[in-house]
Amino acid sequence: MSSRKPVQNVEITIDGQLRQVPQESTLVQACQDAGIDVPTLCFLQGMTPANACRICVVELEGSRVLVPACSRQVERGMIVHTESERVRLARRLVMEFLASSVDLSLSETAQEYARRYGAHPERFEAGVGPPPATVAQSVKVDNDLYVRDLSRCILCYRCVDACGEEAQNTFAISVAGRGFDARIATQFDHPLPDSACVFCGNCIGVCPTGALMFKSEHDLRKQGRWDESSQALTETICPYCGVGCALTLHVQDNRIVKVTSPPDNSVTRGHLCIKGRFGFEFVQESEEKS
Amino acid sequence: MDIRLSPEQPTPEEQDAVNSLLGPEISSSAEKLGRHRLLPALWAVQSRVGWVSEGALNYVCHRLDVAPADAYGVASFYRLLSLTPRPLTLAHICEDLACRMKGSEDLCQEVEKHLGPSAPAHQPGMAPWQKSACLGQCDRAPAILVTRSGRISQDLILGEADLAQLLATLSGRSLSPPPAAAKSIPQLGEKGLRLLRRVGRIDPTNLVDYRAQGGYRALARALQIGSEGVIREVRDSGLLGRGGAAFPTARKWEAVAKAPRRPHYLVCNADESEPGTFKDRVLLEEDPFNLIEAMSIAAFATGCERGYVYLRGEYPLAKQRLENAMDQARAAGLLGERILSAECSFELEIRKGAGAYICGEETALFNSIEGFRGEPRSKPPFPVTAGLFGMPTVINNVETFANIPDIVLDGGADFASRGTKDSTGTRLFCLSGSVLQPGLYEVPLGTTLGALLERAGGVPENRSLRGILLGGAAGSFVGPGDSGLPLSFEATRAAGATLGSGAVMVFDDSVDLKDVLLRIAAFFREESCGQCVPCRVGTIRQEEALQRILSRGAAPASREELLALSEIAQAMRDASICGLGQTAGAAVQSGLTRFVLPAGGEE
Q1: Most A CBs within 10 Å: which of B3, B62, B76, as the mutation test of the A interface?
Q2: Would you call B67 and A71 a contact, using CB atoms and an 8 Å cutoff?
Q3: Nearest-Cα residue of chain B relative to residue A126
Q4: Among candidate residues B86, B172, B168, B167, the one with its CA nearest the CA of residue B127
Q5: Domains and CATH numbers, chain A
Q6: Among B373, B526, B560, whose Cβ lies nearest the Cβ of A123?
Q7: What's the CA gap between A103 and B288, in Å, rounded?
Q8: CB-based contact B329:B292 (threshold 8 Å)
Q9: Under an 8 A CB cutoff, do B67 and A171 touch?
Q10: Which residues of B touch A193 (CB under 8 A)?
Q11: CA distance A251 to B529
Q12: In the prediction, which pLDDT does B601 show?
């Protein structure tokens, strides 16, 4: 992560401020350093930008179109506007497009962006005629560990990349189909147990909208019993092998309901294997038996 | 890679189809054949048995060491590949603009009466026909592509098609001969033609004939004047790319020639799919040796030892003619090692597209060749820095390449003496729709739109000109008042229009322009790759909003509806990753303001 090479700076202008920024940095990093909050949805620190949601676009003088701040590297002399009228319109429309086609109710970030940019997704509703197309569909529950609710999927590519070369190297899922029919799928849309999935759950860890979810969380939500405010977070180390993965146990009513790992942890970078992610039932079994 | 396959096995037929492409399996371990063979391998299966089964996909994955979910994502991207059983013989009837004007909708209704309903594009079944986006045969609309899978697969095009012709072809009773070039080239035999001067006058299947007419003299001269000499002539010519973006060709060539990273790749973009465009097809079918010579010159000038022609899958005759030409060139020492006994080696390969307009976008095209979904990449980096396989790459359109031999032979200055100061040379224009003589026309850049229309005989008698779509679906409309518009890059840009791919679609007062706009909107919805939100959702919201407005008949659109449509277009233009999304609202917006809305109407 931390290279020892001397860092060269370049000068750029962001919203009228002259800034010296490391030449390897992206616009989103440069904006963060300048205290400017650029919205991101598909982007996740530590993963290669997918460039897909386009909520992070900014206006770059001399560029015909807006540019994605998540992936665009800084260049000497760039003049960037992060909240110009064009930028705000594009971001508002991106949120209207998403909110009118995807269930964003579990993504506080997305809802916050929709408010911030004044999105009115209901304006695409038809007075007469067929309603606007959405990705609504029933939840895929095909195993005991996690569920897939693709009606919440914004196609950010994070799960595909985490399953693939960014973390797990299993390649059990991919984007299939095209255009509005594009979707995350296993080979021939098989249920997860019949696919190459190894149930590491790293896709759940990176999903920004709750489209991928622990079955335990899904069940509690269905029963109306999911209550994050009452949950305790317990940091621990996974007991299964010698790697020493950091675990965060999410505990509600004295039961583990979900396991995550801190994204900035140097051992896991947020990723786990099936044992660390899902191998917690024995704890509660023994408690219940005793 | 440790890949996990499902238990489904390939049939012997499927296995044989893959092996005949990749060679027999030598050991059970993956042979590092490379992922870039994925699309050709999927094609091998598709064209043998008519679809790609799970067992076949597994076998391809096993041979190429690609994860099956990944390969499934790739296979499901392309319209000409099917993941469910389909009939061996399948008719694809064009429903795009030029064919619509020539009655393709009526044809489809007739076909439906005889063959039953068509298979919808997203869930193809056993129906023997389906509708297709533009097949690039607009000069002989309505057109049908008939694909025939089997041990000897054979695809063919029916032009000016009717039901009887289609039924005869489906039953195997008739095979249409290749169309005569003369019909597509109303200017045939005229003096002063450059790009079209050999078309219809040489045998496109015969290298001897091409050489007898001066072919391969340009390559010899290129070897004489050297790489820098060639690039200097191209620079002096002022040649701008003919694919649509009008980027200076010499700038690409110079950048790649100087790039220290090796190997360099040369790519010809022959994925001509812009509705209303068929110029590259005519060049490929009627003058294929010229393209090979041009690419050899480019390869020599830019230090590329390997090149690809990415050819759209709907051009069977172009593929056949180009393959034949490559074979003859290779046999004559004009392709391969030590071309013309010089220190210049160049190997060329055709990659067949599989039904995806987006693959005409250069970075999507690279991904497609590499065996990934044809999704565009973020630029920068540009192809000259990191293109095909991440290496410095020259990518040019067929027509751009076609200009090169003359530029090398006659000099850049001679080329620049035609056209305007900023738009040098001649340009091919594809005229279709309401003109007396549709076809391909070559005129100097800067020729006015009116003069071009006159060359094509103008609109038929008793009709009046209503509008012209310049540059295809990704272009925009101009009106009858624009006949004085010079067809140059700078003049069209100043007028807020574009030459784009050279498509000129003419609509008279009998054409329902609402239907035209709805079809354009549907086209972009179908062809969006789905990668970025503005295009994936924007194209469908645009179509829905347009449907709502236009279905109401006389009731005017509300301010809110029009604002929504124009904002959708702006967001797609500003925030999409690539040119598809960036232009997906342009024709609809210009058509609406010019023709449909009372305030902006021209009539």
Answers
A1: B76
A2: no
A3: B548
A4: B86
A5: 1-134 (3.10.20.740), 146-289 (2.20.25.90)
A6: B560
A7: 52
A8: yes
A9: yes
A10: none
A11: 42
A12: 39
* Beta-carbon separation of A90 and B574 below 8 A: yes
CA distance A166 to chain B (A): 14
Other CB atoms within 10 A of residue B481 CB: 10
**Is this prediction's ipTM beyond 0.90?**
yes
Euclidean distance between CA atoms B467 and B128, whole angstroms:
36
CA angle (A122, A124, A128) in 5-degree steps: 105
CB contact under 8 A, B537 and A101: yes
Q: Inspect the interface and report whether the beta carbons of A54 and B69 lie closer than 8 Å.
A: no
Q: What are phi and psi of A225, to 5 degrees?
A: -110, 0
Q: Do the Cβ atoms of A169 and B1 come within 8 Å?
A: yes
Q: CB–CB of B544 and A133 under 8 A?
A: yes
Give, as one character, the DSSP assignment of residue B203: -
H-helix or E-strand containing B254? helix B249-258
The minimum CA-CA distance between B376 and chain A, rounded to whole Å, is 10
- Shortest distance between the Cα of B316 and any Cα of chain A, in A, equals 24
Q: Do A180 and B530 touch (CB under 8 A)?
A: yes
The answer to whether B577 contacts chain A (CB < 8 Å) is yes
What percentage of residues in chain A have a pLDDT greater than 90?
91
pLDDT, position B181: 73
Q: Using 50 as the pLDDT threshold, list the residues of chain B that sit under it.
A: 599-603
Query: How many other β-carbons are positioned within 10 Å of the β-carbon of residue B345?
Result: 16
Asked if the C-beta of B583 comes within 8 angstroms of chain A's C-beta atoms, the answer is: no
Beta bridge partners, B33, equal none
How far from the centroid of its chain's Cα atoms is residue A121's Cα?
A: 21
Full set of structural domains in chain B with CATH: 12-75 (no CATH), 89-177 (3.40.30.10), 243-399 (3.40.50.11540), 426-508 (3.10.20.600), 513-596 (1.20.1440.230)
Q: Give the Cα separation of B14 and B581 in Å (integer).
A: 37
At residue A108, φ and ψ (nearest 5 deg) are: -65, -35
Distance CA A95, CA B165 (A): 50
Write down the pLDDT at residue A281. Answer: 85
Q: Cβ–Cβ of A196/B545 closer than 8 Å?
A: no
Interface contact A180-B538, CB threshold 8 A? no
**Where are any strands of DSSP class E within B385-425?**
393-397
The answer to whether B255 and B416 are in contact (CB under 8 A) is no
Which two three-digit tokens encode residue B63? 């041979």
- The pLDDT of residue A219 is 97
Residue ranges for chain A with pLDDT beneath 70: 1-5, 285-290
Distance CA A204, CA B34 (A): 31
Backbone angle region of B303, left / alpha / beta, with phi > 0 → left and psi within -120 to 50 → alpha: left
Q: Are the CB atoms for B363 and B206 separated by under 8 Å? A: no
pLDDT number for residue B603 = 36
Residue range B255-291, pLDDT digits in tens: 999 999 999 999 999 999 999 999 999 999 999 999 9
d(CA B244, CA B542) in angstroms, rounded, equals 23
Tokens of A70: 């998540």
DSSP state letters, B68-129: HHHHHHHHTT-TT--SS---SEEEEEE-SHHHHHTTHHHHHHHHHHHH-SPPPTTS--S-SE
Which residues from A are below 8 Å from B537, CB to CB?
97-98, 100-101, 180
SS3 state at A169: coil
In B104-195, the DSSP E strands lie at 129-132, 144-148, 156-158
How close does chain A come to B548, measured CA to CA in Å?
7
